[in-house]
Amino acid sequence: LFKAIEWLGIKRTMTEIAFDLGYASPSAFAYMFRMETGYTPSQWQKRSMSQS
Fold it and tell me: What's 52's DSSP letter?
């Protein structure tokens, strides 16, 4: 999860992140991310960009 958050901060795509972390699909990654953080990956990305 920490690696995903780091990569979302440098504008990697959700597909790249999902496969690099070993998920079978971007949707599987997005589901896990939302369950852990309460945000979708794109919501997290927008949130972190607005705080920069």
Answer: -
Q: Which residue has the tokens 């990956």?
A: 41
Does the reported pTM lie above 0.85? no
Question: 3-state SS of 1-47?
Answer: CHHHHHHHCCCCCHHHHHHHCCCCCHHHHHHHHHHHHCCCHHHHHHH
Location of structure tokens 């599987």 = 28
Which tens digit of pLDDT belongs to each residue from 25-52?
Answer: 999 999 999 999 999 988 988 887 777 6
CATH of the domain at 29: 1.10.10
Task: Give the residue numbers spanning the domain of 18.
Answer: 2-51
Number of domains in the chain: 1
